[in-house]
Amino acid sequence: MNNPLLSIIIPTYNRPHLLPRAVNSALAQTLENIEVIVVDDASPEPVKLPEHPKLSIIRLPQNSGGAAARNAGAKAASGRWITYLDDDDQLLPNMAAVSLEALNNTKLPKPVAGISGIEVINSKGKVTKKRLPPTLPLGSYFCLEKIEPGKSFHCKQTMVVERDVLLGIGGFDESFPSRVHTELFLRLNPVCSILGLPVTTYRLFKHEGSQVSKNSSLRQISFNRLIHKHKEIFQARPKAFAKFVLQHAQRSYELGQTRAAFFNLLWAIRIAPRKTLSKLNKSLSKAKKKAKERSALPVSGA
Fold first, then answer.
1. What is the mean pLDDT of residues 49-74?
2. Domains and CATH numbers, the chain
3. Is the pLDDT of residue 240 over 70?
């Protein structure tokens, strides 16, 4: 398509059963002036999709990882704006239209990227949680700033950004096998305002298939690499740094990565002892309260 306003880039690897849902949701956008680029990261069987005038497929010569696939899509894109869609997720029909309208009307210092809300869908197709993003002005550090209650940093998948801005900061760091969005936003936000839209536009599906975020080795390698690369930023914000490490420890524990959880918990305590122990105490109090509430529920059939 000639001169699209927005390029929707879908990196994919060996998910022929999930990819069509993602592609169809991209092509179903209410905004007409789009293109959809599927970047096949050298899947064992090349991607095959029905032809569509707005759809193109790029096949990489060798498997290079999600960051490289995203960068290849950005370089091939024709739109002024680009956004990404994971091959196992889905865009709601208004995603492109509401994002670009908000970006055109914002008064934030330019350049401005937009992020919107996410619905998390479980394996039964039910919405288990909703996340709405914060707004952070140019010069901030996404993930490390204090944000208002009810807002979440975990909406980065919905990023709509100018292609030139993304490529101008070097795109995604291809040395990271995971944590690629977090790393990118730590470089993006200092040079670009982030506009948080209070509307849900993206469905994130939780499933039993292979996911990079669940790979224990890749998670820990990328987390340590992230801290090392942005060491000065983290060290200048000890309370935020400790919170960031503690959240990683909690998520590691949820995924059954108990060794990593233990060592990251100790790390968080070393960074900011009082802050970390206070947060731990609050978490334990909440867990006890929930356990007490569950035990007070009537037993079915009694």
1. 97
2. 6-205 (3.90.550.10), 212-291 (no CATH)
3. yes
